[in-house]
Amino acid sequence: MNFLAVIGRITFGFLQATGRLGVFAGTAISHMAAPPFYFRSLLQQMMTIGYYSLPVVGLTALFTGAALALNIYEGGSRFNAESALPTIVVIGIVRELGPVLCGLIVAGRVSASMAAEIGTMRVTEQIDAMSTLSTDPFKYLIAPRIVATTLMMPFMLVIVADVIGVMGGFLIATGKLGFNAGNYMSVTMDFLEIKDIYASLTKAAVFGFFISLMGCYHGYHSRGGAQGVGIATTNAVVSACMLILLSNYLVTEIFFAT
Amino acid sequence: MTDTPKISLKGLHKQFGPKIVLDSIDLDIMPGESMVIIGGSGSGKSVTLKCILGLLHPQSGSIKVDGEETIGMGRKDRKRIQEKFGMLFQGAALFDSLPVWENVTFGLLAAGKAKRREAKEIAIENLRSVGLSPDVAHLSPAELSGGMQKRVGLARAIASKPEIIFFDEPTTGLDPIMADVINELIVERVKEMGVTALTITHDMSSVRKIADKVAMIYKGNIIWSGPRNDIDNSGNAYVEQFIHGRAEGPIQMEVLKA
Fold first, then answer.
1. Count of domains in chain B?
2. DSSP calls for B116-152
3. Using CB atoms, which residue from A117, A125, A134 is nearest to B93?
4. Which positions in chain B touch A136 (Cβ < 8 Å)?
5. How buried is residue A255: exposed, middle or buried, by Cβ count under 10 Å (0-12/13-18/19+)?
6. What is the pLDDT of residue B254?
7. Is residue A11 in a domain?
8. B 34-93 → A contacts, CB under 8 A
9. What confidence tens digit (pLDDT) does each residue in A159-177 have?
């Protein structure tokens, strides 16, 4: 087998997929900006994506904050730095763990469900039927999902994840590790900067966009019945997770690189 | 009746990769006419419909609706043309996330042409016209039998009062009695509304009931067309073999034998 031909084929395939995704994203964005807007569909999606994801996001954040506090206390005690616990918990949760874990959880829950739903609609000709009813599937199906996820991630889920995550650390620190509650909160507020919150919300919006884009893209292009929908669902979750981790680094670089 | 065909196809060519599905389709359908395209599985019937609807893009050829070229049309013009069409899909393609009444009036609701209360009344009226009781309006598509789904699909196809209705294998998967009920309904609705109809099927009882004219497609070309009553005396060996369902003849099925 010609080694160079294999590399060429892989590169060509990658560029083709990237181009297709770019066109899809561009079309979706153009449909978000132009009427008609389906507000009913948007509200439904906001409810499904935002409100119904709250329990799982809250629990994840609570236990992560708690575990983080225990780890920092034990690690910090090796060089008498236990008092840094509130600072590290708040910065760790707000800047990094809140948005990233929330993003990964929502990718698993929402991206998969979008890919499966839209994929099933594709293979059962429901998307074709929508077109024959003079309704653009990009406007009715794709745009509301992307807008809803991009809004719900920062303004509901990650805010809640940040607050509950910090609270998880607070509960362990004050209940188990002997920290004074007032002191803990005062140190937390002193060290938390507005820039940390902006970074957290920016990451959340970017992750939300990628989660919904991947769910919609893979669902919309699924082919070949149940197996095709299964493949689309897997690809949606995997690609959304990869994009979350990649964009997390890039946003961190933009906000905090000195 | 005008001389301009409602739908005119000239030299329509569509291939997927190296596989030619439509070689060069020429077909005229006059206003108010009920044309039925027959042909074996994989002969290109569904692809022809999807090309006319703009769901697939042919590599070459011409598709005119009311004398207006639709290939290469902009989004706005395409939407205007799309409003002339209604379609009953093979598997009904009902939106399973919506109740029956919203399915029936989906096009009207999405285009903002009716308020929800008014749309529900229109849906019930259309359901009645296909022999379904108002109780069905609030059911979900998953609660309906195959025959009922087809009727709802038909109600949806006629709800926006289209000028042209496509029927994709309207009797597939139904028992002979229900198939006859659907055929009767199609004939009734088409005559009453005075619409142009294009049906694709390989069910000869549908052909004999629905068609004014019949065209046979084979290997991506129309190999015979004529009035329904001429089909038994077509003098075409391919048509003869197809309408009598014989294994022996010029049409060789691609079946691998052990």
1. 1
2. HHHHHHHHHHHHHHTT--GGGGGS-GGGS-HHHHHHH
3. A125
4. 79
5. middle
6. 60
7. no
8. 50, 53-55, 79, 82-83, 85-87, 89-91, 93
9. 999 999 999 999 999 999 9
